[in-house]
């Protein structure tokens, strides 16, 4: 199910890396950067196991939301381990930060905040914090990597490159950290988009396999990641007026600085109204957030009863875990419990 696993069959420069890492002042943060399928997770697994075999405590920070090893998907996760492992997918998350998508493009803020917060925690608990990242190293991906590095200030950033394609990026990082460049292993395999998607499918499915459905009283929680449930409810008169004006069936609406309405029908054009198509709310990913802002688990929104302010949400979290939730955060991916991804929503959609 996971692409990367532990192997000793690595290029010689991995041992040189280990010698450098081993001598770093502890606690030390090491960030791994490279393109898609460049062997980042394989390297992270190698390095972590080597350090563990020398008796160190290692924290792995999985921020590769496109191809996560550690569950749950669409979050950034921190795990702590001092025993050898074959694949990071065996490890259980200690803390997660909710991103709500499988691509960082509209979620730079969530990604860098999550990485920073979890790296800080990792430093308190482990000798080494190893940070795995997405393979997004082109265009805006370069900015994302820089933002992460600026905030986390890793003691060492390791780059994986085939030739010299990351040289420019490496130069710009020398300001923040010590850098080291390694060769992509000749054994590294490329995975097609559809294989990547099917690996993600397995992950979603595994996470939701023992999920159960809860009726959640939304009035008891902070609701974030959406303009819904913010502001005053629209009056019955406003509802009728808006329905007539735009030819919609409206289920709910709020007046903040503008109207946010949830309805059925085609999206009103040339208006200031923030329109949310009711259908796009089904199978939407939500995060269950605790007092500290960390994500205790994720859920799939099945239905909202706006009149009663209640939602049907499917999640593997147990009743007692749900007691520690203070906030429900809306994500931007629709997915079914069998792992089928139904599409991404824009940041503005909710
Ligand atoms: N040294 C190696 N020996 C054998 N196989 C390797 C080695 N390095 C990488 N691979 C293989 O190449 C593939 C890609 O490696 P890996 O998953 O570690 O890359 P990644 O950069 O983490 O990818 P992603 O961008 O999806 O996160 C995997 O199937 C992995 O097993
Ligand atoms: Mg990876």
Word description of this protein:
By secondary structure, the protein is an alpha/beta fold. It has 2 domains: 13-198, P-loop containing nucleotide triphosphate hydrolases (Rossmann fold), CATH 3.40.50; 212-349, no CATH class. It is 27% helix and 31% strand. It contains 8 helices and 18 strands. The protein has a 7-stranded mixed β-sheet, sandwiched between helices. Strands 8, 9, 14, 15, 16, 17 and 18 form a 7-stranded mixed β-sheet that branches. A 4-stranded mixed β-sheet has the order 10-11-12-13, with helices on one face. Strand 6 (156-161), helix 5 (167-173) and strand 7 form a beta-alpha-beta unit. Helix 1 (13-22) crosses helix 2 (40-53) and helix 3 runs parallel beside helix 4 (140-152). The protein is elongated and about 70 Å long. 41% of the residues are buried. The protein binds adenosine-5'-triphosphate and magnesium ion. Magnesium ion binds at residues 4, 40-41, 64, 67, 132.
Task: Kindly summarize this structure in a few lines.
This protein has helices at residues 13-22, 40-53, 108-125, 140-152, 167-173, 193-208, 236-246, 319-322, and strands at residues 28-34, 58-62, 75-81, 95-98, 128-132, 156-161, 178-183, 212-217, 222-224, 232-233, 249-255, 259-264, 274-277, 284-290, 295-305, 310-315, 325-335, 341-344. It is an alpha/beta fold and 350 residues long.
């Amino acid at each position: 199910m996971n692409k990367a696993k532990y192997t000793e069959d690595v290029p010689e420069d991995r041992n040189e890396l280990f010698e450098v890492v081993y001598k770093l002042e502890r606690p030390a943060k090491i960030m791994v950067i490279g393109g898609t399928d460049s062997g980042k997770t394989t390297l992270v697994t190698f390095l972590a196991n080597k350090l563990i075999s020398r008796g160190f405590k290692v924290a792995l920070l999985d921020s590769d939301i496109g191809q996560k090893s550690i569950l749950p998907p669409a979050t950034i996760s921190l795990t702590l381990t001092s025993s050898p492992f074959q694949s990071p997918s065996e490890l259980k998350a200690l803390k997660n930060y909710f991103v709500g998508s499988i691509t960082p493009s509209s979620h730079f803020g969530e990604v860098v905040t999550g990485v920073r917060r979890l790296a800080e925690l990792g430093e308190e608990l482990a000798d080494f914090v190893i940070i795995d990242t997405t393979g997004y190293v082109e265009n805006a991906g370069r900015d994302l990597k820089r933002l992460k590095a600026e905030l986390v200030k890793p003691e060492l950033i390791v780059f994986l490159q085939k030739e010299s394609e990351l040289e420019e990026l490496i130069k710009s990082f020398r300001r923040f950290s010590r850098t080291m460049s390694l060769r992509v292993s000749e054994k590294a395999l490329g995975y097609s988009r559809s294989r990547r998607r099917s690996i993600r499918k397995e992950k979603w499915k595994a996470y939701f396999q023992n999920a159960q459905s809860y009726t959640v009283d939304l009035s008891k929680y902070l609701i974030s990641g959406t303009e819904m449930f913010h502001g005053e409810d629209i009056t019955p008169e406003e509802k009728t007026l808006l329905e007539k004006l735009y030819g919609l069936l409206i289920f709910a609406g709020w007046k903040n600085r503008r109207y946010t309405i949830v309805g059925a029908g085609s999206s009103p054009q040339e208006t200031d109204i923030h329109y949310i198509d009711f259908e796009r709310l089904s199978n939407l990913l939500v995060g269950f957030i605790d007092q500290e802002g960390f994500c205790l688990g994720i859920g799939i929104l099945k239905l909202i009863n706006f009149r009663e302010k209640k939602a049907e949400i499917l999640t593997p979290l147990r009743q007692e875990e749900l007691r520690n939730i203070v906030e429900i955060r809306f994500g931007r991916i629709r997915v079914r419990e069998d792992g089928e991804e139904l599409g991404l929503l824009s940041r503005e959609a909710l």
